[in-house]
Design goal:
Elements (H helix, E strand, L loop, with lengths): L3 E13 L7 H6 L11 E13 L4 E5 L6 H8 L7 E7 L2 E4 L12 H11 L4 H15 L14 H14 L4 E4 L8 H16 L3 E5 L3 H7 L2 E6 L2 E6 L1 H19 L13 E9 L7 E2 L5 E9 L5 E10 L5 E6 H4 L3 E3 L2 E9 L7 E11 L4 E13 L19
Parallel strand pairs: 3-7, 3-8, 5-6, 6-7, 11-18
Antiparallel strand pairs: 1-2, 1-4, 8-9, 10-12, 12-16, 13-14, 13-15, 13-17, 17-18
Length: 398
């Protein structure tokens, strides 16, 4: 059976009671006649969400904490029932949506592997064949025969993800619980998800790693306040979401003495790249190049700050970030327009099109503005190149 996921106008409502008895005092309050008690408040965690995922397709879900992402996944896995709407799921599904979910705390890691796989309908013989691979992927072999109640959150995440991907699911659902793992293991998980995607599995991924959403997913969904704010091509959805975050950050973290600090007060007017041939927006691999950023300070006072430039491919893969904040290269943003130049003695990028994002910080490290795809440039040569970067090298024979 092919994997398929369909959600039509799905909503989930919770009742928030303010008179729940969690102390003796509250218990006495509950003795008050019902007609005088406050009525439960309605809260819609998810409201009118619709999407469809066909065999071999992937969907990335983004949104800030409390936006309804995890509730939506619980509805998809039937941990909860929707208040309104319709959900249809088919194919073998494996999910990792809550840390330690499905683990019996008194069972060992090995016993929990058998338990989880059995729940998913995997035969004992198949489980035994995959046991060593599951343990090795999770990198917890010394603790595999220890009860999981003694596991750290990272060990829970490792084992849970390893079981989820090794039962050969047709549909994999993963929440942001991987954030508790170390960076190397997170990358390992993303590599495995990408491999599953190539093999034809359908994937639903909730993640704060927006670069992974752009690179790995076919479609994206942005949820805010339980409502869909954006849906479509991952790059476009992530761009809209990032813009929302930047506006929120600029509004909330503006310096008290800079009343006008906002996206409109500081902006990037133009970004150009020039190589040896003096042709703007086109350079050859290995040549020196200059990135010129034209900034506009629309306030009436000078601000000390930093500029960060990020170079990425159109598919969202970030190649490199050059950060004045990291290099401690502070600049003075005087009122009006000014140019900031970044010189690189060698630009070892493979042939292809690249995009530049620019972020401006104040001297306290607070983000003032961010410009996505502020500039583009092409790397091209007569030689055929592939990959992302070119490494200067020589061949030797001993």
């Amino acid at each position: 059976m092919a994997a398929h996921a369909l959600a039509e106008n799905v909503s989930k409502q919770f009742k928030l009671r303010r008179d729940r008895a969690d102390s003796v005092g509250h218990l006495l309050l509950q003795m008050i006649p019902r007609r005088t008690r406050p009525k439960p408040e309605s809260f819609w965690a998810v409201k009118d969400v619709s999407f469809e995922i066909k065999q071999g397709r992937s969907l990335g879900i983004v949104g800030n904490n409390g936006s309804g992402k995890s509730t939506l996944l619980k509805l998809l896995t039937r941990t909860m029932q929707p208040t309104e709407g319709y959900i249809e799921m088919s194919g073998r599904m494996s999910a990792l949506i809550e840390l330690g979910a499905g683990f019996h705390p008194d069972f060992t890691g090995r016993e929990n592997i058998v338990l989880n796989a059995s729940i998913l309908g995997i035969r004992r013989r198949e489980i035994e064949r995959s046991m060593d691979e599951i343990i090795d992927f999770a990198e917890i072999r010394p603790f595999i025969d220890v009860p999981v109640k003694y596991y750290s959150s990272g060990m829970h995440a490792r084992l849970g993800f390893s079981v989820a991907v090794h039962v050969q699911p047709q549909l994999l659902i993963v929440d942001e619980v991987l954030a508790v793992g170390d960076e190397a293991f997170q990358q390992k998980c993303m590599d495995r998800i990408f491999a599953m995607k190539r093999s034809g599995a359908s994937i639903i991924l909730v993640s704060h790693d927006l670069g992974s959403i752009e690179r790995l997913m076919d479609d994206a969904l942005w949820i805010h306040g339980g409502v869909v704010r954006g849906r479509g091509i991952p790059r476009d959805v992530v761009h809209s979401y990032r813009g929302f975050l930047e506006e929120t950050t600029a509004r909330d973290s503006a310096a008290p003495d800079v009343k006008e600090t906002s996206q409109t007060s500081f902006r990037v007017e133009e970004v150009t790249v020039q190589g040896l041939n003096r042709h703007e927006q086109s350079i050859a691999p290995g040549d020196p190049a200059c990135i010129r950023v034209r900034l506009k300070n629309a306030t009436t006072q000078a601000i000390h700050g930093y500029v960060a430039v990020s170079i990425r491919r159109p598919d969202g893969l970030e190649v490199v970030e050059i950060s004045g904040l990291r290099d401690q290269q502070i600049i003075t943003l005087t009122p009006g327009s000014m140019d900031v130049e970044i010189w690189a003695s060698e630009f070892h990028l493979a042939n292809g099109q690249y995009e530049i994002d620019v972020t401006i910080f104040d001297d306290q490290g607070r983000r003032l503005t961010n410009a996505q795809s502020a500039g583009t440039f092409r790397v091209q040569s007569q030689e055929r190149t592939s990959g992302v970067i070119l490494i200067p090298h020589e061949w030797r024979r001993n």
